[in-house]
Amino acid sequence: MTTDTTEQTDAGGGIAADRTVSDPDYDDAFDAVVVGAGLAGSAAALTMASASLDVLVVERGTSPGAKNVFGGVLYTPTIRELVDVEDAPLERYVGEKRFGVLTEDDETAVSIQPGAWRDDPHNDSYTVLRGDFDEWFAEQAVEAGATLVTETTVTGLLRDDDGTVVGVETDRPDGTLRAPMVVLAEGGNSLVSEGADLKERPERGDVAVAVKEVLEFPDADDAIEQRFRLTGDGGAAYHYFGDGAVGDAFGGAFIYTNDDTLSVGLAYRIDDAVTTQPNPAETLDHFKSHPAVAPLVRGGRTVEYAAKTIPEGGAEAVPDLVHDGAVVVGDAAGLVLNNGVHLEGTNMAVESGYYAGLAVADAVASGRTKAHALADYPRSLESSFVVKNLEHYEWLLNAVEDDRDLLFSELPRAVADAGAEYFRVDHAPKHDHAANAKSRLFETVGGWRGAAKLAWRYRKVIS
Amino acid sequence: MSNTPSTPDVENASLEDRLYTVKYEDPGESHLDVQVVGFCVERCTTDDCVDVCPADVWRKDEDGEPVIAYENCLECGSCRFACPYNNVVWEYPENGSGVTYQYG
């Protein structure tokens, strides 16, 4: 395989001695090829390179992160153990989480800002921009000895006679790359994994479409600090549900504060996007114009518009993680948690890349690459928070789907009405307002009995 | 207290302006296509690809045949999942072409 100026190497790791960096031949030169330099791919590459494997990371973008989009809050418990996050391009730590339920013109919200979040390591939650962060994280893998090739697209997998994966095909001239192990970290739009029958295309009810704008405020330097009441490196993560966020759809919207920009966006199931719901760009316009949202985003200039799909099928939708000669990690493996309160994927991507990297390193060290030799990866993941969380909230996906009108539309309306009634100032005694507020809520949830049933059904959201 | 509107106007950028913010290199040919030409006209009545697309890539002409503005594509892949007939052909744009997100 020949490339031009797109490879980065450290100490010539993995390149055969008779090759130069300007004319490398990567075929059969590496122990493992990683498809995609996102969080999962770079975590796997870093882990394998640290275990003295010769690792090649193949990234289709012009640089790591160029094709990557998220909300975004990065959760760093494992990243912190792998690299020095003090040097990482973090935007702000999350000092406040706010959950707002929106009807067409009301908001009812809960905010938490524990004092401990202001202290290092800030609950391991930071806003980041992936263009910066992913490039930095991939550099850490390169410094650990991995080789990175960009602007190179993996187009398929190579298999030997018994079906074992033995490398990749790329879009480079002479782009065949044989290697004992392939790590598929290609993201949620996983064309290579699906094309090679390592997983099926997810159902559209299990996938969300997401759009996001990054906004800057050229006319007001302190707009973000003022509007979100921020000091220092502190930041905020605002989440929104209900009709005012994503209409009738199953999903939610968000605003995250970066250093000097806002990330504003939303995500909802593709099943709903193809119905009467306006298209994602229009839904985003509508959300930004909500009376409770507009004051936060007004005057913002769009510096980037982005879209992605999110695998949200939960534990049941996770494909086989190991195959003969290959492992699947991150979004490609459907490792995203969305239970309404917790929206996590970055930590699961890193965790899966890390465990996959360890398992591949062990397998390669003993000269074995079959699926059973890689079983430590799924085993470790199953005993980690990744699969435990997905399984714990599996029931929620079905329950919320059954109750969606109640949860996303009727209840938000009732809570807003009840709140307005409870605090109404007029000539009637407060006792009457409280009674009216209570009956407004009860008529929606079905009285004490209905309220108790709902509370019981959703008890595990916070437990 | 004044009588100015309580909700400030938010000037949402047009989709065209939004797409203009994304750095893009044209691969020269479309990375998107339909599997079976004519199928969309004959069988599809829902235009799910059009409804889901955040970037106005998928449009239908008067006859119901898809017109693919691939250079608008943000590479999210939603059309591929949305099509109930699996009639969307989706390939990664090659050699670093397509979108380059600076923020992401």
Layout of SSEs?
The complex is a heterodimer of chains A (about 475) and B (about 100).
Chain A: E1 7-8, E2 32-35, H1 39-50, E3 55-58, E4 73-75, H2 77-82, E5 92-102, E6 107-112, E7 125-127, H3 130-143, E8 147-149, E9 154-159, E10 165-170, E11 176-178, E12 181-184, H4 191-195, E13 207-216, H5 223-228, E14 234-241, H6 243-246, E15 251-257, E16 262-269, H7 270-273, H8 280-288, H9 294-297, E17 301-311, E18 322-323, E19 326-328, E20 337-338, E21 343-344, H10 346-365, H11 376-382, H12 385-392, H13 394-402, H14 404-422, H15 430-445, H16 447-457
Parallel strand pairs in A: 2-3, 2-12, 3-8, 5-14, 12-19
Antiparallel strand pairs in A: 1-8, 4-7, 5-6, 5-7, 9-10, 10-11, 13-16, 13-17, 14-15, 15-16, 18-19, 20-21
Helix pairs in contact in A: 1-3, 1-10, 10-11, 14-15, 15-16
Chain B: H1 15-20, E1 23-25, E2 32-34, H2 39-43, H3 48-52, E3 58-60, E4 66-68, H4 78-82, E5 88-90, E6 98-100
Antiparallel strand pairs in B: 1-6, 2-5, 3-4
Would you mind describing this structure in some detail?
The complex is a heterodimer of chains A (463) and B (104). With 463 residues, chain A is α+β, with helices and mostly antiparallel strands. Chain A contains 16 helices and 21 strands. Chain A has three domains: 214 residues, FAD/NAD(P)-binding domain (3-Layer(bba) Sandwich), CATH 3.50.50; 143 residues, D-Amino Acid Oxidase, Chain A, domain 2 (2-Layer Sandwich), CATH 3.30.9; 59 residues, no CATH class. In chain A, helix 10 packs antiparallel against helix 11. With 104 residues, chain B is of the alpha+beta class. Chain B has four helices and six strands, in the order H-E-E-H-H-E-E-H-E-E. The model of chain B has no long low-confidence stretch (mean pLDDT 93). Classes of the chains: A alpha+beta (463), B alpha+beta (104). The interface between A and B is large, with 65 and 46 residues.
